[in-house]
Automatic annotation (TrEMBL):
Signal peptide: 1-20
Source organism of this protein record: Pseudoalteromonas peptidolytica F12-50-A1
Protein name: 9-hexadecenoic acid cis-trans isomerase
InterPro entries: Fatty_acid_cis-trans_isomerase
UniProt keyword terms in alphabetical order: Signal
Length: 777
């Protein structure tokens, strides 16, 4: 044991001994706890935090402690999150009978004292401030010290004492509880299940903590950004009913976005929020859970609030606002020919139904607005709070494409009348807010979906009776320039990713979204979903999404020959007991023939080729799996026995002959006989049909395996060994040779390399990856 580690062990014993004397000793030694004033603008110690402390916290701590799913709700990504500290309450709890009170940073409490009243406990010393007490009384310091004082295995697999499951028990200790934790779980030091900080990193954080943990916010936005903010806030807060209704619609679709202004280069992002104060005054946040919940004030103002926390890949959804976007919104919403006599209210049964609230805005305007930023809207389904965990995501397949119905074909008067007549049938579960009774609610929504699909199918039968208009002209082509026209969604078991383009091999299924379907998915999974809701709310949301997935798939099937539609659908839902959602959707395949001329016995592949052809001008090629060079390209067609051994998301870093590095993502797609079962996913797995895709760049926010290939010979050897894998020992041998395990002595160096490459290649899309799903193999 080194002298440094020995010293740390002795120090930890001394500090822990303080607790052993009795719970009250901390108060006796250092006085009662009281939140401290730590955020200091324009002060030397605060500046030191930004330049020396914050980079260490981000690269070593925020990669696990950054958002809703951070262990113990500890968000180290901002001064407010650090000061707030820990909570023993779970955000993600699929079993709670009653919704819980939200704990959103900045929204649900404004001061550290208020968070203490909400049950959050400190990770920094809040007693008497001195060099000794600031270390002895800090959970953060003692967690780092515990790791430093216990040697970590090098290159091995960690023992069963380490629990990396998403639903693992969380200790979330107060300082009074830390001694017992250290004795019972000496392996629980931070970073958990990863190597300790370097000596210099540890000393930097130690000095910061010793000096009182002073912090400073990032710089204010540049003058350029502030001018843009003022312009956009003026645009969004005009006084007429028409302007106010349009601004409400824009907000309810953009509120999760990280907005930036291309005119500026200072890297600032902004969030569109509701405030009780108008532009020019400090923002006073409306604290409602959903973007359409009653603000309980006479008028809301839509404001752009600077994002001051670290940007994380798993929640980052960038949106560029410029003069062209401003003109586009004006054309879509303000120049359009419609009137708004009265503004809709915020009663839950009304506000949760966008077809009622925004009935005065033309469907074409709404749909074009969503299509313009389709990837952003779909990312809300993926990166919003709903999509965490396997139960939330087992409603979708592992790899599928998304295309859209052209707004010119989806906005005629017949479609408008359909939506107006059936607006009651399009009501969504959020109408019941966050507490719901699953069975009675489910029956009600099932009945309404059946009525809507019956009417939609009847209209389609009439519109396409001649078989001449049911063809590729229905597909939106991005107006010849918008890459949002084609998207790919990858599910990674308990996380997911969406990217522009048709990425990877032709998938098992594809969705074709029309306006009503696109809008309902957004209001179901994003605007209307409450992560703090009860089991009924979460269960109904998942079950309702069955309807919408089937509807999107059937829009695609309707483009195929009549003779193949049911056959392909039966293949997608093999071995399934006929669920209520499938029963309701069974007759929504229209009987009109397709107008597409097929030439082979494999029309689905022909249709994929035609989709590629008509969308070729706008297809994003950044993740084209076909351009991956040899020998790695062979990973796209490996034996299934090898693919079955892979985790869902692997990052491969290769070193080039000139010393530069290139990144690839190797994605494992789990195949299923069907995805109609809520609780028996394992029983529906079709292991023999699993596939893998390797693409250039990074896809996935939660890497599970990291590989480093030093040279061309290593790449060739890696692919050769990979193709021969048939068992877990084979995989472990490959990991030992080329993997960067959790226990790798230089893990953090490789982590820094990955983030450096990502920052260089992803640009404005860059955010820190999350390590909570790194495998222990």
């Amino acid at each position: 044991m080194s002298k440094r580690v020995l010293f740390c062990a002795v120090m930890l014993t001394v500090l822990s001994g303080c607790v052993a004397l009795g719970v009250s000793k901390y108060d006796d030694m250092f006085g009662p706890e009281q939140p401290q004033a730590r955020i200091e603008q324009h002060h030397q110690s605060g500046t030191r935090y930004l330049h020396t402390v914050k980079p260490i916290l981000e690269s070593r701590c925020v990669v696990c402690h950054g958002c809703y799913d951070a262990p113990c709700q500890l968000k180290l990504s901002s001064p407010e999150g650090i000061d707030r500290g820990l909570s023993k309450e779970l955000v993600y709890d699929g079993t709670r009978l009653l919704a819980r009170t939200p704990t959103r940073l900045l929204f649900d409490a404004q001061t550290t004292t208020q968070w203490r009243e909400r049950g959050f406990t400190a990770v920094l010393n809040e007693r008497q401030q001195s060099d000794y007490s600031n270390l002895a009384g800090s959970v953060l310091y003692n967690s780092l010290l515990l790791k430093m004082s216990h040697p970590f295995p090098k290159q091995g697999i960690l023992g069963k004492e380490f629990d990396f499951s998403l639903d693992r028990e969380q200790s979330c200790p107060t300082m009074d509880e830390f001694s017992a934790l250290a004795k019972q779980q000496p392996h629980a030091g931070m970073p958990y299940g990863l190597p300790a900080l370097s000596h210099d990193e540890f000393k930097t954080l130690e000095q910061w903590l010793k000096n009182g943990s002073k912090m400073q916010q990032i710089a204010e936005p540049s003058d350029v950004d502030q001018k843009e903010v003022a312009k956009w806030e003026q645009f969004l807060n005009q006084d007429t009913n028409k302007h106010r209704l349009a601004a409400r619609y824009i907000f309810e679709h953009w509120y999760l976005a990280h907005i930036y202004f291309p005119k500026s280069d200072d890297g600032s992002f902004f969030q569109l929020v509701r405030s009780s104060t108008p532009p020019g005054q400090p923002i006073a946040l409306v604290k409602a859970v959903r973007p359409f919940d009653d603000p309980k004030i006479d008028r809301v103002y839509y404001r752009l609030m600077q994002v001051r926390s670290t940007i994380l890949s798993k929640t980052h959804m960038s949106l560029a606002l410029d003069d062209a976007k401003l003109a586009r919104l004006h054309q879509q919403f303000y120049a359009a020919d419609y009137q708004v006599q009265t503004l809709p209210g915020y009663e839950p049964e009304l506000a949760a139904n966008p077809f009622k609230v925004f009935k005065d805005i033309p469907v074409k305007s709404r749909y074009q607005f969503m299509l313009d930023e389709a990837e952003l809207i779909v990312k809300g389904f993926i990166k919003g709070p709903v999509c965490r965990g396997q139960i939330a995501l087992n409603v979708i397949n592992d790899h599928f494409w998304v295309a859209f119905v052209d707004p010119e074909k989806n906005s005629n008067e017949a479609v408008n009348q359909l939506l107006l007549k059936h607006d009651e049938d399009l009501v969504l579960p959020a109408a019941e807010q966050s507490n719901a009774l699953p069975l009675s609610s489910w029956a009600k929504y099932a009945s309404k979906q059946q009525d809507y699909l019956r009417a939609k199918t009847a209209l389609a039968e009439t519109m396409f009776a001649d078989g001449q208009r049911l063809n590729m002209d229905l597909i939106w082509r991005g107006e010849g320039e918008n890459p949002n026209a084609a998207l790919t969604i990858f599910r990674h078991f308990d996380s997911a990713t969406v990217v522009k383009g048709f990425i990877g091999q032709p998938p098992k299924t594809t969705w074709v979204l029309d306006y009503a379907l696109f809008e309902r998915i957004h209001y179901l999974l994003v605007a209307g979903f409450d992560v703090y809701g009860n089991i009924g709310h979460q269960l109904i949301t998942r079950l309702y999404m069955d309807f919408l997935r089937l509807e999107g798939e059937q829009n695609f099937l309707n483009l195929l020959p009549l003779s193949h539609r049911q056959e392909i659908k039966r293949h997608w839902y093999r071995k399934s007991h006929l669920s209520l959602s499938e029963f309701i959707n069974r007759k929504s395949l229209i009987g009109a023939p397709t107008g597409i001329k097929y030439k082979t016995d494999d029309p689905k592949q022909e249709l994929y080729q035609q989709l590629h052809t008509v969308l070729e001008p706008v297809l994003n090629k950044d993740y084209d799996y076909r351009v991956v060079g040899k020998p790695l390209q062979a990973l796209n067609s490996m034996p299934v026995e090898a693919i079955n051994l892979l985790p869902q998301v692997s990052f491969i870093i290769t070193k080039q002959s000139d010393g530069s590095h290139q990144a690839f993502s190797l994605l494992h797609h789990n195949a299923h006989f069907n995805i109609s079962s809520l609780l028996n996913e394992e029983g529906q797995r079709a292991y023999a049909e699993d596939t893998a895709t390797i693409v250039p760049g990074f896809i996935g926010d939660y890497p599970e395996a990291i590989w480093y290939l030093e040279n061309k010979a290593a790449k060739e050897d890696f692919v050769s060994l990979f193709s021969q894998m048939t068992s877990e020992p084979d995989y472990l041998a490959l990991r030992a040779q080329y993997g960067i395990r959790r226990t790798h002595p230089e893990f953090w160096r490789y982590s820094d390399l990955i983030h450096k490459i990502a920052e260089q290649t992803r640009g404005v899309e860059y955010g820190l990856f999350d390590y909570n799903r790194l495998e222990n193999r």
